[in-house]
Amino acid sequence: MHLRGDMKSSDETLEFKAKYDDRGFIPCITTSAKTGHVLMFAYMNEAALQKTIETGEVHYWSRSKGRLWHKGESSGMVQKVIEIRTDCDQDCLLISVDMEPEASCHTGRRSCFYRKLKRDGGLEFVDSGRIFDPEDVY
Fold it and tell me: What does the pLDDT read at residue 2?
C-alpha cells in the first residue's frame, strides 16, 4: 500500500523507473506528433522499450506473434519517436511519433480506433477510409 507521501515523492521524481505488470508488460499509447490523434495502443516489455530508446523507432511486444515487433517491419511504415512520456506513477507510456504515410492500423487506416460504440451496443465507423490496401502490404 502506498501512502500519499510515498506517492508524492514518486510522482515528482526525475528518475525513470517503468512499472511493468506481472507479465512484464507496460501499456503504450501512440499518438501522431502532427495531429495529436491516437494512432494505436500496444504493449511493450523491457526489451521493446530499450530497443525503442536505442533506435528512435518504436518497437512493441506482439502478444499475438509472441515476439518483439518493430512497427513497420513488414509494411515499411516505421514510427519515428518524437517524444516518450510516462504517466505519474510510471505504469503507462505515451509516445508521440512521426510516420509516412500516417497509417498505424493493419486494416490500412490512420488509427486503430476507427469505430465508436453506439448507445444500442453496436459499432459505427468514424474513419472508414483506408490509406493503404492491407493486401498490398502484408
Answer: 44
